[in-house]
């Protein structure tokens, strides 16, 4: 049985929406974005996450490596930090990005996350192809109970 891509997209638990991810997210949603293992968070949307949620020392204590996900809990919401590269000026490899997204899926399943909002992770300063990024996220969350919404301005 074959399906068209639009039919697959309609059944998917992944969607894209234009808007501000911090304003448009329902209060019960969790958030995710990419960072480096050095936890600098001095460029792009990472600056907003750092100023809004703080917790750099909490993230450091988790001792996560590239390909893993650290997280904070703020106001009953999980804030996920996908570690996709060693240092802020590096670019993630496809392997490291895919490992981090896979770990995000594992954590969402483990923690019972029903809604996850994120920017176009990896496709901004990290320069990963947006179609590739969306494909990785869709595939990772295929069959998941977590609805993923990717926001763009």
UniProtKB/TrEMBL annotation:
Domain called Macro: residue spans: 1-153
Which EC number(s) are documented for this chain?
A: 3.1.3.84
Tell me where on the tree of life, at the top rank, the source sits. Answer: Eukaryota
Q: Return the SUPFAM superfamilies for the record.
A: Macro domain-like
- One biological-process term from Gene Ontology? peptidyl-glutamate ADP-deribosylation
Coiled-coil intervals in this record? none
InterPro entries the UniProt entry points to: ADP-ribose_metab_enzymes, Macro_dom, Macro_dom-like
Q: Which reaction does it catalyse?
A: ADP-alpha-D-ribose 1''-phosphate + H2O = ADP-D-ribose + phosphate
What protein family is recorded? Answer: Belongs to the POA1 family.
Protein name, UniProt field: ADP-ribose 1''-phosphate phosphatase
């Amino acid at each position: 049985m074959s399906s068209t891509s639009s039919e697959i997209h309609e059944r998917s638990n992944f969607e894209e929406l234009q808007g501000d991810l911090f304003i448009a997210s329902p209060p019960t949603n969790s958030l995710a974005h990419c960072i480096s293992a050095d936890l600098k968070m001095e460029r792009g949307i990472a600056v907003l996450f750092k100023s809004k949620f703080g917790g750099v020392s909490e993230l450091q204590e988790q001792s996560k490596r590239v390909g893993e996900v650290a997280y904070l809990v703020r106001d009953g919401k999980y804030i996920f930090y996908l570690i996709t590269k060693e240092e802020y000026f590096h670019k993630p490899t496809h392997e490291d990005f895919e490992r981090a997204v896979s770990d995000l899926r594992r954590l969402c399943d483990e923690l019972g996350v029903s809604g996850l909002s994120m920017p176009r992770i990896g496709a901004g300063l990290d320069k990963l192809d947006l179609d590739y990024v969306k494909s990785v996220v869709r595939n990772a969350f295929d069959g998941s109970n977590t609805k993923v919404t990717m926001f763009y301005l």
